Amino acid sequence: MAELDPRAHFVAITGIVVKDGKFLIVKRASHEKAYPDKWTVPGGKLVRHEYESVQKTTKDAWYNIVEWVLKKEIKEEVDLEIENPKYLCDLLFIRPDGNPALTLSYWCDYKAGEINLCKDLSDYAWVDLEEAKKYDLIDGIWDELKMVDDILRKG
After folding, report:
1. Is there a domain that residue 1 lies in?
2. Does residue 2 form part of some domain?
3. Among positive and negative, which fits the CA dihedral 48, 51, 52, 57?
4. Domain total for the chain?
5. What is this structure's pTM?
């Protein structure tokens, strides 16, 4: 195994999509390396060749690339459009391959579209907080749903 650069990290962005007071959860396919067959929320990794196709905001940089990735990944994974993304929290974990992964968790409003799952997802559900307890969620996802539920209840 090649030596890992201790400074290199995967960066993933996830989004809790809210529609009519319910949250979208998705089931990861059994072929996934990390958390196969577990329920989570849609999102994906920051990939250099993908954002390099986007026009830079300044001569040397891309501003608001996280929002761009979030919208792109949710469209690719579940074929929905979202709006009003808001930062929720972040977490760091070590992937099964030994690489560290930083996940930036957001929540957002459903804008348009009908669910059409990508090949890496096998099922979906729109759930409220209580219903979410019935699913085999990745550890911590229910807590994130609770955070969003608390925000929504406070208005």
Report:
1. no
2. no
3. negative
4. 1
5. 0.91
Residue 122 to residue 77: CA distance in whole angstroms: 11
Matching residue, tokens 């348009």: 112
Strands 10-19 and 81-94: unpaired
Q: Judge whether 69 and 17 are in contact, CB under 8 Å.
A: no
Of 8, 21, 55, 53, nearest in space to 145 by CA: 21
- Chain-centroid distance, C-alpha 110: 14
Two structure tokens written together for 24:
């979208």
- How far apart CA 45 and CA 128 sit, in angstroms, is 26
Label residue 102 exposed, middle or buried (CB < 10 Å: 0-12, 13-18, 19+): middle
The answer to whether residue 94 is domain-embedded is yes
Query: What Cα–Cα distance (Å) separates residue 92 from each residue in 12, 100, 104, 118?
Result: 10, 7, 9, 25
Convert the pLDDT of each residue in 106-124 to its tens digit. 999 999 999 999 999 999 9
- The answer to whether the beta carbons of residues 83 and 108 sit under 8 Å apart is yes
